[in-house]
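EI: anyone free to look at a 181-residue chain?
SC: sure, send it
EI:
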Amino acid sequence: MAATPVRERTRHEIVRQAMRLFQDRGYNATSLQDIASAAGCSKATVLYHFNGKPAVLAAVLEPAAADLAGLMDSAAGLSQAEAQEFAIQQFTDLAVRYRGVIDVLQDILPVIDEVPEIAQLVADGIRLTDLLAGSDDPLERDLAKFAINGLLGECRHPGERSDDELRKLCDIALRRILRSA
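SC: here you go
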């Protein structure tokens, strides 16, 4: 049975309001009741659409997770050097596009392994680090982690830089920190 337009709108509004609340208050400080109130529905309605707060979180993160999975699929057939260059370009784009999602992810990092609903996103993030490293050298992997964490921190502050400024910063920083093309 296909979802009705009203159900789709309600689900969309729940996800939209959850994203806003997770960014404003943090994931742990936001309750299902908070989400329901912001979305103009009952907590039971939220639970009709989602099997708990982790499922709401997964829905909030889903567009970014899908794009990251697509990046990983596209890089699969490339040489290590080509994959690194591709990952630098695509990571920069994703980081700018999903600034708000990054803010939410940074908030849940201490408990991210306890949220099985986003396990694939975590796995793809680890694979992205490997692509950015451009080699199996542990130092290069550590540098990739360092670069990612620093740039993700910069993406959390949307008012400080325009998208173009942030893209330029990400691209230059990744190329300087990593041994890339």
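EI: The two ends are 50 Å apart (CA to CA).
SC: 👍
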